[in-house]
């Protein structure tokens, strides 16, 4: 089954290459073609889930009692039930540099791979009836397919430099998406986006190279198993600082977030959805995959700082949202707050914290993806996303749209029973009892601040809802068309998943927990 | 058996889903295109009918199942009760000995696992009965009350969702599961207060209710963390039986108290409840009087052994209750809006329950402390919770009928409705009698139970609490008498033409039957529930050797005080029926009417500073943080501009630089080598 992941990366790449041929210049089929290709990618991702689940089930049935014993020695279970890498492909790539084309999935990356292919597919579904404002649909489809290659590859790569290559591949298509199909001030936003994130990537690369020179290998699996062995404490701290800073730009962590609001505000709907839904996750995924498992001592040294910046981001993002007048900008700042919870989860250096971060990652991808779809639809109908000009009364004029917006906001503010809750709750739970090496009173303070942030999050979303959906006065939307069936086709999967993960968090936690426990238990076993 | 419990919860949930998605099947898209106007169209009516069927059927079946479960528990058919109920209060067990529990699955979190589990014991079943009965009554009542509202389907679906969430709280076997239901209730409250969202006041009230309760809920969640991590499990049974150090217990219960204060509208988080009256009246009856606001009391009773182990928490609760009951009663005395009178009265009555809980286990009167058959504050509180649920829901539903007839919430616009609305008059009289605590209404017995427990408690704040409770009895008599007199007696008020509440209210003046029946049915428990409780406890008491009677001494005192309060108001009103008896408050009338300016204080101390801070953050973000980013960009450009000066295309300059460089290297080489 090792070929599956290669095909998963190759399909969008081949699709982009084929579509770039001049023979496809004919109008109209580009988006359909893109939809098909991304649909195939989604099917492949689901096949990977199936392939992942089969041995998982077998492992579970062979030892049915062990998962039900809480507090028992779960390290061995973690290794056997999904903590290990699956579907690996390991080919020599540049033998002179000992670079390998090494792909694989485990419980940490699998949900993100599915999320990426799903969101890309839904973006194409959305595009079938909503052609890009800037024209050139074929170019957009090619760009998005290349983007998908980079995103999926980032989550699958198990070689540090391969990871970096995919990480960089993403930037260029996203730059073009913003610069060519964006809003009125798209150029400045795009330039800011690419310069800022490239700077982050440069720092990230330095960190990766430090790891390489110190540990002598680029293989993430080996590095994670060593758990920092072979690297001095100072080297780990240096490497964590560089890698963490590079990832923090992408995540984004306060105060490295200012590229995000501009990029989101100017990007077209599909760009915003993928930016918030997937690109930000690449940063946080890096923490889960590289920074924390490979550099445990560096992580322990910086965790209090990471936690502090995370909760500052939560409060700061919420406050910024509270005084925001642009819908898309508000959602962008809400991402700063939500990713703050993700980072807080990582900062606790506990299995529950990392579980929280991974859950919040996926939930944020689904919810904020939906929010940006809705914001785009609002902007399309009203011609503006300015809250003051939108006025109120959306529930009267566009009842379904208003209801969906309410749903998405309620999900985003972390209501239990919807996906947004579990990540936040578990992150706070992690902060309640952080890893033994961390100062507990400090993290208790972080928890309290994070809790206040949760209230502020509710405050800005409800204020926005009250302003936009309630009341009677408001701008007449052009055409007064409520949600179309094609929009619904793109949104309903997100709604269903948000409800499903909210009501049955085990669906995701059962996948991530063994992998997360493998990250931490191997550290305690091997000194 | 646990499947029955699950079914009781899932049926309303299914009704909510069906009501939201299914009631407009077939017209969905065409309805969306025209924009869902406010006109009452045939398809709206059809959708409403369908939604009503979903909602009422689910509520009725849930009620039937709950009653069956109660019967089964009372008879204890399974006979498989564990002999030891760790930490659970034995009292419910004395007449509802049965107990069901089940765990669906265990969710591993990497830390303490979450168990998706339910449990139905005496306390759950008792509270569950209240929830389903009031929910059924309100659903039926709403069919008439909301007739012609184009948004009735979502309205009834949200009530169903609320019912499911509250039942989840009641039957939860795990604290996190309880929290899930707890928050979903808050959401339903938000959605239903904001049902008439065209009205800015409704919208604001809804947001306020959600935010204030959420503020408390964050503390509640942290309290759950503290308990769960200390006990190593979030299961309620494990938490109750765990050996938790007192310090941790105090912290945890104080944190839980935040959530309780938020949900049950206790000081200092009480301000949302009066504003929540902007919602439809049946919602006020169900959520903001009978059930959701009682959830806080229920949770304390559920975890009562923990609170008993944390005496300082109970003292804090006593102070909160003492301030809340008297303050809210005084505020109720000064309100002109009938629903706001009832809202403040709810805060006051909830504070009674909190006071009973704060009293702890009555050592003097009836039983030995901590024993299996002990008589504690939790029973008195739950007794009052149940009777209050019945009579306050009744009062609200009657108020809805009155308001519907008078076309206004204001009592100054009412008066003389006794003859016009005879059924409402009599049922509401029962409700007020229960509220004041006149025998033989249920409120007499339950309030007596509460006051007797408070009287015999020995906490640090006991004198304060007891004094406040007695005073409040008098004020309660006063405001109830005032509301009763100004609504049903005296000159007929100035009737404005019925203002349509932003929707087509072409209701006939006479009440539809669907509104009358729930009122009449609820009047029965409001009147007689006290006897039923006495009988039940007596039945249960036979076995364990203790029971609950009436403490005649304290009952006589409070009855006299209540009649005194009512008598003063009556005398004042008698002297001039056109004038408001609230004038007896004199200069304190305005502060009471404004509820002691707590709202203004919060606006000035919390809301506005936060908004100012938010604006500051936006400015700082643009100028400082992003300014640094842009500044670094500009600095780079500036530096490159300097460097560019060297690249001016002048060959002479390049050669000069080359020669100078060579010279420099040569000199350096010479210096280093020599």
UniProtKB/TrEMBL annotation, chain A:
One of its GO terms (biological process) is ATP synthesis coupled electron transport. Keywords: Membrane, Transmembrane, Transmembrane helix. Residues 157-433 form the NADH:quinone oxidoreductase/Mrp antiporter transmembrane domain. It is found in: Endomembrane system; Membrane. The chain crosses the membrane at residues 6-24, 31-54, 108-127, 139-157, 163-181, 193-213, 233-249, 270-292, 298-319, 331-350, 356-378, 398-422, 442-462, 488-504. The keyword Transmembrane helix applies. Pfam families: Proton_antipo_M. GO terms for molecular function: NADH dehydrogenase (ubiquinone) activity; NADH dehydrogenase activity; ubiquinone binding. Coiled coil: none annotated. InterPro entries: NADH_Q_OxRdtase_chainM/4, NADH_UbQ_OxRdtase, ND/Mrp_TM. GO terms for cellular component: endomembrane system; membrane. The keyword DNA-binding does not apply. It is a multi-pass membrane protein. Belongs to the complex I subunit 4 family. This is NADH-quinone oxidoreductase subunit M. It comes from Sphaerimonospora thailandensis.
From TrEMBL, chain B:
It is a multi-pass membrane protein. GO terms for molecular function: NADH dehydrogenase (ubiquinone) activity; NADH dehydrogenase activity. Its main location: membrane. InterPro entries: NADHpl_OxRdtase_5_subgr, ND/Mrp_TM, NU5C-like, Proton_antipo_N. The chain crosses the membrane at residues 6-30, 51-71, 123-143, 155-173, 179-197, 209-232, 244-262, 283-304, 316-334, 341-365, 385-407, 419-438, 464-485, 515-535, 555-573, 653-673. Residues 172-454 form the NADH:quinone oxidoreductase/Mrp antiporter transmembrane domain. It is found in: Endomembrane system; Membrane. One of its GO terms (biological process) is electron transport coupled proton transport. Gene3D superfamilies: 1.20.5.2700. The keyword Transmembrane applies. Keywords: Membrane, Transmembrane, Transmembrane helix. One of its GO terms (cellular component) is endomembrane system. Residues 108-155 form the NADH-Ubiquinone oxidoreductase (complex I) chain 5 N-terminal domain. This is NADH dehydrogenase.
């Amino acid at each position: 089954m090792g070929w599956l992941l290669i095909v998963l990366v190759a399909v969008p790449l081949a699709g982009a290459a084929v579509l770039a041929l001049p023979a496809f210049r004919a109008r109209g089929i580009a988006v359909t073609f893109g939809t098909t290709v991304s649909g195939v990618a989604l099917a492949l991702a689901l096949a990977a889930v199936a392939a992942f689940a089969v041995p998982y089930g077998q492992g579970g049935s062979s030892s049915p009692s062990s998962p039900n014993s809480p507090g028992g020695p779960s390290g061995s279970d973690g290794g056997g039930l999904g903590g290990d890498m699956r579907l690996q492909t390991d080919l020599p790539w540049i033998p002179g540099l000992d670079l390998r084309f090494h792909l694989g999935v485990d419980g940490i990356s699998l949900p993100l791979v599915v999320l990426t292919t799903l969101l890309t597919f839904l973006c194409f579904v959305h595009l079938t009836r909503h052609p890009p404002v800037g024209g050139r649909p074929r170019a957009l489809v090619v760009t998005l397919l290349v983007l998908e290659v980079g995103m999926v590859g980032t989550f699958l790569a198990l070689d540090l430099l391969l990871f970096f290559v995919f990480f960089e591949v993403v930037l260029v298509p996203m730059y073009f998406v913003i610069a060519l199909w964006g809003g009125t001030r798209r150029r400045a936003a795009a330039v800011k986006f690419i310069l800022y994130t490239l700077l982050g990537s440069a720092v990230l690369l330095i960190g990766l190279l430090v790891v390489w020179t110190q540990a002598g290998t680029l293989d993430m699996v080996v590095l994670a198993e060593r758990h920092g062995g072979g690297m001095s404490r100072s080297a780990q701290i240096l490497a964590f600082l560089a890698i963490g800073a590079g990832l923090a730009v992408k995540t984004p962590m306060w105060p490295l977030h200012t590229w995000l609001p501009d990029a989101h505000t100017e990007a077209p709907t599909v760009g915003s959805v993928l930016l918030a839904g997937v690109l930000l996750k690449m940063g946080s995924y890096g923490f889960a995959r590289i920074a924390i498992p490979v550099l445990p001592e560096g992580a322990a040294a910086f965790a209090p700082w990471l936690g502090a910046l995370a909760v500052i981001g939560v409060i700061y993002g919420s406050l910024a949202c509270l005084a925001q007048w642009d819908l898309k900008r508000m959602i962008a700042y809400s991402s700063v707050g939500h990713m703050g919870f993700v980072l807080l989860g990582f900062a606790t250096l506990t299995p529950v914290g990392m579980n929280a971060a991974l859950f919040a990652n996926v939930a944020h991808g689904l919810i904020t993806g939906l929010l940006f779809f809705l914001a785009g639809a609002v902007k399309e109908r009203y011609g503006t996303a300015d809250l003051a000009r939108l006025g109120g009364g959306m529930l009267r004029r566009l009842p379904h749209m208003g209801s969906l917006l309410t749903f998405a906001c309620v999900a985003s503010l972390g209501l239990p029973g919807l996906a947004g809750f579990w990540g936040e709750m578990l992150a706070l739970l992690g902060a309640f009892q952080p890893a033994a090496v961390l100062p507990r009173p400090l993290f208790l303070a972080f928890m309290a601040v994070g809790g206040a942030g949760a209230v502020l999050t509710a405050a800005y979303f409800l204020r926005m809802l009250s302003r936009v959906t309630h009341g009677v006065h408001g701008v007449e939307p052009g055409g007064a068309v409520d949600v179309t069936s094609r929009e619904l086709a793109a949104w309903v999967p997100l709604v269903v998943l948000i409800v499903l993960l909210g009501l049955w968090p085990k669906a995701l936690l059962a996948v991530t927990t063994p992998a997360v426990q493998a990250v931490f238990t191997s550290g305690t076993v091997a000194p | 058996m646990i499947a029955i419990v699950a079914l009781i919860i899932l049926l309303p949930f299914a009704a909510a889903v069906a009501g939201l998605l299914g009631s407009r099947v077939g017209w969905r898209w065409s309805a969306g295109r025209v924009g869902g106007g406010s006109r009452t169209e045939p398809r709206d009516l059809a959708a409403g009918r369908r939604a009503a069927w979903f909602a009422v059927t689910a509520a009725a079946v849930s009620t039937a199942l709950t009653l069956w479960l109660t019967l089964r528990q009372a008879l204890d058919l399974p006979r498989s009760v564990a002999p030891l109920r760790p930490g659970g209060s034995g009292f419910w067990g004395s007449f509802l000995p049965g107990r069901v529990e089940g765990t669906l699955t265990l969710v591993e979190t990497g830390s303490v696992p979450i168990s998706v589990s339910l449990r139905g014991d005496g306390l759950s079943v008792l509270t569950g009965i209240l929830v389903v009965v009031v929910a059924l009554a309100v659903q039926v009542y709403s069919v008439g009350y909301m007739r012609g509202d184009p948004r009735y389907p979502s309205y009834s679906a949200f009530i169903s969702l609320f019912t499911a969430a509250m039942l989840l709280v009641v039957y939860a076997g795990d604290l996190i599961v309880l929290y899930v239901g707890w928050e979903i209730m808050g959401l339903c409250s938000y959605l239903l207060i904001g049902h008439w969202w065209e009205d800015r006041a409704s919208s604001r009230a809804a947001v306020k209710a959600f935010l204030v309760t959420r503020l408390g809920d964050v503390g509640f969640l942290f309290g759950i963390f503290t308990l769960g991590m200390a006990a190593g499990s979030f299961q309620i049974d494990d938490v109750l039986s765990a050996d938790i150090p007192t310090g941790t217990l105090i912290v945890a219960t104080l944190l839980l108290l935040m959530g309780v204060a938020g949900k049950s509208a206790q000081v200092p988080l009480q301000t949302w409840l009066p504003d929540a009256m902007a919602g439809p009246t049946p919602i006020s009856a169900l959520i903001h009087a009978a059930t959701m606001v009682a959830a806080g009391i229920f949770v304390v009773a559920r975890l009562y052994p923990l609170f008993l182990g944390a005496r300082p928490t109970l003292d804090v609760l006593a102070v909160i209750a003492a301030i809340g009951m008297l303050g809210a009663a005084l505020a109720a005395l000064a309100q002109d809006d009938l629903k706001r009178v009832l809202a403040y009265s709810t805060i006051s009555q909830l504070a009674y329950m909190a006071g009973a809980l704060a009293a702890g286990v009555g050592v003097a009167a009836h039983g030995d402390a901590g024993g299996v058959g002990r008589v504690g504050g939790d029973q008195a509180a739950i007794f009052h919770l149940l009777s209050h649920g019945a009579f306050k829901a009744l009062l609200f539903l009657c108020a809805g009928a009155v308001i519907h007839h008078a076309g206004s919430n204001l009592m100054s616009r009412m008066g003389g409705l006794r003859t016009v609305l005879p059924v409402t008059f009599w049922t509401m009289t029962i409700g007020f009698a229960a509220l004041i605590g006149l025998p033989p209404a249920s409120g007499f017995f339950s309030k007596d139970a509460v006051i007797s427990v408070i009287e015999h408690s020995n906490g640090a704040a006991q004198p304060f609490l007891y004094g406040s409770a007695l005073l409040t009895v008098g004020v309660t008599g006063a405001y109830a008498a005032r509301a009763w007199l100004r609504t049903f007696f005296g000159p007929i008020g100035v009737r404005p033409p019925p203002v349509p509440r932003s929707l087509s209210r072409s209701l006939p003046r006479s009440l539809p039957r669907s509104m009358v029946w729930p009122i009449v049915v609820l009047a029965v428990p409001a009147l007689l529930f006290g006897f039923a409780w006495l009988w039940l406890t007596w039945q249960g008491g036979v076995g364990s050797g203790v029971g609950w009677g009436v403490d005649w001494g304290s009952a006589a005192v409070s009855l006299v005080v209540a009649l005194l309060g009512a008598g003063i108001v009556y005398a004042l009103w008698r002297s001039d029926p056109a004038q408001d008896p609230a004038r007896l408050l004199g200069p304190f009338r305005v502060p009471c009417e404004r509820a002691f300016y707590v709202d203004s204080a919060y606006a000035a101390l919390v809301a506005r500073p936060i908004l100012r801070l938010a604006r500051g953050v936006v400015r700082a973000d643009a100028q400082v943080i992003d300014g640094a980013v842009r500044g670094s960009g500009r600095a780079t450009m500036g530096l490159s501009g300097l460097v560019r000066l060297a690249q001016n295309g002048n060959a002479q300059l390049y050669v000069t630089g080359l020669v100078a460089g060579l010279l420099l290297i040569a000199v350096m080489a010479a210096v280093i080598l020599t």
